Amino acid sequence: MSATEPLEVWIDQDLCTGDGICAQYAPEVFELDIDGLAYVKGADEELRQQPGESVPVPLTVLQDVVDSAKECPGDCIHVRRVSDRVEVYGPDAE
Ligand code: SF4
């Protein structure tokens, strides 16, 4: 995979434990809402709350997002290529 290939990330809130690890690792992309679950947010700071909604992964925080997906206790952070929607980090990655 090319390091510059555009990626996007989404969270399966059904499995989120609300521990907040992702929001600690990459607060630019992840935030806990008042319902106690984590959501992704875009450059506009708006949380994406529709199921499966994704945001682009900024290259500047790519490693933090990847680490979040690896450490996520709920195994519910999915990072995929924009071009073909293939998961590259997360529970469904090969
Ligand atoms: S790390 Fe995973 S389980 Fe924990 S708050 Fe973030 S999305 Fe939810």
TrEMBL record:
InterPro entries: 3Fe4S_ferredoxin, ET_Ferredoxin. The keyword Glycosyltransferase does not apply. Gene3D superfamilies: 3.30.70.20. One of its GO terms (molecular function) is electron transfer activity. Keywords: 4Fe-4S, Electron transport, Iron, Iron-sulfur, Metal-binding, Transport. Its cofactor is [4Fe-4S] cluster. Ferredoxins are iron-sulfur proteins that transfer electrons in a wide variety of metabolic reactions. This is Ferredoxin. It comes from Peterkaempfera bronchialis.
